[in-house]
Amino acid sequence: MATAAVEVLKKAVDIATIPADIIAKQMFPKAIPENQWHEHVKEFLTNSNDGYIMVETSTEDMNKIEELLETPKGFFSTPYMIKTKFQQTTDAIVATGLAAAGYQYVNLDDCWQLTRDSQGVIHPDPEAFPSGIPVLSDYVHSRNLKFGLYSDAGFKTCAKRPGSLGYETIDANTYASWNVDYLKYDNCNTDGTIPEVRYPIMRDALNASGRPIFFSMCEWGVDTPALWAVNVGNSWRTTGDIRDNWDYMMFNIDINNDFADKAGPGGWNDPDMLEIGNGGMTDAEYSTHFSLWAISKAPLLIGCDVTNMSAATLSTLTNPEVIAVNQDSLGVQGKKVAFASSQFPNASTEIVVANCSTSSKIEPKRLQWTYNSQDGTIRSALNGKCLSINNCSIDEGAAIVLNECHFNDSQAQCQGKNQQWIVRTSDQTVISQMNGKCLNDNLKHGPNVDAYTCDKQDHQQWLWNVTDGTVRTKHDGQCLTVLQELEVWAGPLSDHSQAVVLLNRGNSGSESITVKWTDIGFSNNQAAVVRDLWARKDLGIFTGSFTSPNINYHSVIMLKITPTRKQILENYN
After folding, report:
1. Which of 510, 511, 430 is closest to 471 using CA atoms?
2. Catalytic residue among 138, 191, 241, 538
3. Which residues, at least 6 apart from 215, have a Cβ–Cβ distance to it below 8 Å?
4. Does 495 qualify as catalytic in the annotation?
5. DSSP reduced 3-state for 248
6. DSSP 109-127
7. 241: annotated active-site residue
8. In the chain, count of helices (H) and strands (E)?
9. pLDDT by 10-residue block (mean), the chain, 573 residues
């Protein structure tokens, strides 16, 4: 039945270099069950001159397949949005050019539903949607856009409205009758069973409904869906909810990066919606946000008020070259490939707590520390730099960074006293000799570590392992970790080029960053055209590496690096 389809996929893998098991499970949308593949894919294979694989299907079926294979782009409302505002939003997506830029889904979040009738059929809130949901769906479709809804794999939604648990078939058929194109499926107020049990029930109901519906799993990454959801959803949240600030945004994309190899066409890692335009970050930080989501092949779902956007917000959201990276047909998620360390001697580096096993896969020395009781310094095994209170600040919550050691230096800021500590074995605290504050695992702001008034709680207690050099927080066992602030992210594209993001995630200053060809899969003698995607201009032809101009903190340069045509032919013929 599906033999020919699988053979097509295997041959595609040879060119695309995507793992065969990922392709085989994800190339066809979840809305087309495996036992129906033969109805959608004819046993025909064509090798085109440029190396792409063509699968012959009907035009209608191919459109369905392509739509569900792509990373979704669109808008997600806030809860409690009413009909009038939703229609205004739909109009704005068209009028502003967002629709022309490819944002096609207009999705309604929680609180649209209110009751079920005697047959179990869900009904909307009559005050918010007096004309019903089908009218809203028709309105969106009349603008050549797609319509999405929200539900929950529990008895009630997160806002205590009726959930779909126990009503999956009824709800899926209802959504199909309303011409719904996208379903966000949350994870509140459940019966206690694991997501691996509850989410496939809705998958099967959607499959049986007869309508292709993009299935967006929103179980917040609590059950590591990237490891099992490939046969269940079209996307899955890898993280908790995002917030409109730098720390939360970076925290989410760091977690998402851990699962880069689990994503592919038809099954995407989702670090949550875009906060661009909501006001909590600078325009530069929003450009960074968009760049990282784009290279990570994350869903691009706008979360701001599109009826009242700034020119900068619209420009960020509609950059065609950055969007093209996200929508590239190869569908390989970009990831971190290199990190700054001692080759950047003037760069301070943030200190965080992180999962010990995950971090050690990147660079074990980032987790290793030595304490010198004679001079009070705590030094990183990565580069010998000292654990420091940033800028000698005496404020509550002052950031902890890694800097060149300046203790007892009369010329240094605060004579280097911000780098001297007392490690007390009696209560397992680490106390600053400068201000008496404790090294603190800040539980409210992602993984950050700061200096805070001592409270004798377990988030200020640290367990030193002299055998492996790690320092673990007693609160949850995570490791004190050097978060190297200068990073290179990269991922392959279908034209044999590489998308690259050069990220300065430090909290001050500016630094240049070098991307080495060997870090992105090219040979040292490779000549390649380097293009700046935000500036939308070629920077020249480079061999072996490219070094950027200085990049401000919390900012990026996003590149497309393309081998010259002669070397492409040599490498791929």
Report:
1. 430
2. 241
3. 30, 31, 183, 185, 202, 203, 206, 232, 233, 234, 235
4. no
5. helix
6. -SSSEEEE-TT--EEE-TT
7. yes
8. 14, 34
9. 29 35 37 39 31 42 66 93 96 99 98 98 97 98 98 98 99 98 98 97 96 96 96 96 94 92 96 98 99 99 98 99 97 87 49 73 76 95 88 92 84 90 96 96 79 94 94 93 87 97 87 92 96 98 96 97 73 51
> Element (H or E) spanning 439, and its range?
strand 438-441
Phi/psi at 286 (5° precision): -65, -35
Query: What's the CA gap between 353 and 117, in Å, rounded?
Result: 50
Helix (H) or strand (E) holding 73: strand 73-76
Nearest to 482 by CA among 541, 414, 426, 402: 402
Q: Which residues pair with 499 in a beta bridge?
A: 491, 560
Residues 6+ apart with CB under 8 A from 314: 96, 97, 98
Q: Which residue has the tokens 């500590």?
A: 421
- Strands 53-55 and 73-76 turn out to be unpaired
Mind giving me the DSSP string for 153-219?
A: SSSB-TTSSB--TT-HHHHHHHHHHTT--EEEEE--S--S--HHHHHHHHHHHHHHTTS--EEEE-S
Hey, what domains does the chain have and what are their CATH numbers?
A: 3-62 (no CATH), 72-331 (3.20.20.70), 336-340+485-572 (2.60.40.1180), 349-483 (2.80.10.50)
What pTM, to 2 d.p., does this model score?
0.74
Please name which of 212, 254, 263 lies closest in space to residue 235, comparing C-alpha atoms: 263
Annotated catalytic residue, options 181, 186, 244, 441:
186
Three-state secondary structure readout of 300-325: EEECCCCCCCCHHHHHHHCCHHHHHH
Q: Closest Cα to residue 113, out of 164, 63, 69, 52? A: 164
Q: How far is Cα 67 from Cα 105, in angstroms, rounded to an integer?
A: 11
